[in-house]
Specification:
Number of strands: 20
Protein name: Glutamine-dependent NAD(+) synthetase
CATH class of the largest domain: Alpha Beta
Subunit structure: Homohexamer.
Helix content: 40-55%
Pfam family, one: CN_hydrolase
Number of domains: 3
Pathway: Cofactor biosynthesis; NAD(+) biosynthesis; NAD(+) from deamido-NAD(+) (L-Gln route): step 1/1
EC number: 6.3.5.1
Structural class: alpha/beta
CATH superfamily of the largest domain: Carbon-nitrogen hydrolase
CATH architecture of the largest domain: 4-Layer Sandwich
Radius of gyration: 28 Å
Largest sheet: 14 strands, mixed
Length: 694
Amino acid sequence: MGRAVTVATCALNQWALDFEGNLERIFRSIDIAKSKGARYRLGPELEICGYGCSDHYYESDTLLHSFQVLEKLLESPATRDIICDVGMPVLHRNVRYNCRVIFLNKKILLIRPKISLANAGNYRELRWFTPWSKARHVEEYFLPSIIQEVTGQETVPFGDAVLATKDTCLGAEICEELWAPNSPHIEMGLDGVEIFTNSSGSHHVLRKAHTRVDLVNSATAKNGGIYILANQKGCDGDRLYYDGCAMISMNGETVAQGSQFSLDDVEVLVATLDLEDVRSYRAEISSRNLAASKVNPYPRIKVNFALSCPDDIAVPTCMPIQWRHHSPEEEISLGPACWLWDYLRRSKQAGFLLPLSGGIDSSATACIVYSMCHQVCLAVKNGNADVLADARRIVNDETYIPEDPREFCKRVFTTCYMASENSSQDTCNRAKLLAEQIGSYHISVNIDAAVKAVVGIFSVVTGRSPRFSVHGGSSRESLALQNVQARIRMVLAYLFAQLTLWARGMPGGLLVLGSANVDESLRGYLTKYDCSSADINPIGGISKTDLKNFIQYCIENFQLTALRSIMSAPPTAELEPLVDGQVAQTDEADMGMTYAELSIYGKLRKIAKAGPYSMFCKLINMWKEICTPREVASKVKHFFRMYSVNRHKMTTLTPSYHAENYSPDDNRFDLRPFLYNTTWSWQFRCIDRQVNVL
């Protein structure tokens, strides 16, 4: 037999329950793989139905439609003479499994259920699926009649097995199994498996990509072999962005790298590799060979097919490459931008509206939309017909070609500065200048009349007129007056989102963008149902520190000079009266903590799993050079009081792009009560006792 095998993996922008679109993208990936000479094609996890079906996995319809798609794949000439490995849910003996279905020439070779389910953070696989717990065990699976009619098979192997082709041996892993301490590839490699495959549904988190790459490369560094990873990409219907990074590795080195962020719905990587390189690499690892001689063998499914050709001596093989990682600022520029594009085109809206205050957060959101426009123009320039078709539909012009990001931004992005008597001319000017530089359609509105009307209704009913604290009012009055302004901005944002295009004689409506960052959400430093309430929020999972670095990146890479003054201005809500025409209110003074401190609290609370006492114990060492134990105790107590008092706001938080592992997203990532005993009496007493000892 030959020695050079040609294999393909892909990153597909699948969409939950979009069976028609998902099938079309799978077919495209198979066509590309075959056109490049591949004899094996690997796809992402649960690619047939889309990974993010959530509780739809309970529905028999999801299983039925998945098998209907599989039927189309099996009977199509496009899948002839290539081993296809696709993902879908399968019900076996009344138990749902997350499976790979591997087939060749209208015959199903193996259904391989997932062994280790992802169940942390955003993942809830144990809610819908059961892990396969029978190691190296295969059972008979009775196929549905629609599949039997195509394959002529009544039953097929179901379980933990590997495929033995005429020239090599392949073993499958599914996503989480790569991350598990007892990954199947270890034992499979010892049992002679030379090609490992991994179908993933792995989402983007800032600074995470290198971990995935290191895991793939290390999987074959100790044991030798070829590792092929496929992943979903894009927004498939919720807060997550699946970030591609399909890759092929051999003997601990990357030989093919896919993009992490891209508007291409289908991306296929193909590599030709020499099996003898695997065998010679393993030959000199004596510890591996000793362990291999004692391994418990896997059931082997024999496949009368080869991944190589008999006469392949002159076939060139792929060489190792150096993986290029994005900086965190590039990740913020690209990830949320791609997520926004998917949301915009799939929601069939005509663009975005952003309340632009002239501060860092809303400006960063505006820059992400501008980055999206850059990505669209670049994709069209590179010949992406899907992006061009979507852009034409969004702007309602069948002849339109997006070439200039600023011009495209004018068509799909509306910014709105909503001034009150408490707004400064500086923020107004900053917002206007940034809008000019990115090209957005900009509106300036004064909300004083609406504020006075709402407060006037209260005064008529009660006979009392609330005042700001600087005018002699109580803190209750002042806070209520600030909240009225903030909430009226939300109401006006939705009004303008619905009717701005109507007023301009254009069809469609706009999606409202929010711009509360992850730190403010954690602290609860926002008005419930203010402009943080929107349709989606691209920066809701990003810290203030990272956003500042991103703003600097935009100054340098997009030449947005308006951002310089925004960077230098102290963050402010501008909800209290000005003093001599200048802003007197600042965010950090209002919060009673700095953004740098808040970022530390967030990481300790979520990632380090620290309650009040544990956080105090960690911080007295971290901050021993700058704070006394009593000062640390005071800071920790203040944070937990404010966090718990405001936790209810997280229940209505706008769906946000997930980017940080300390996100306070109440939907499914950070599950906590929202009615706390905010005195924390027992916990704070423990801190006080320790302070007295110290």
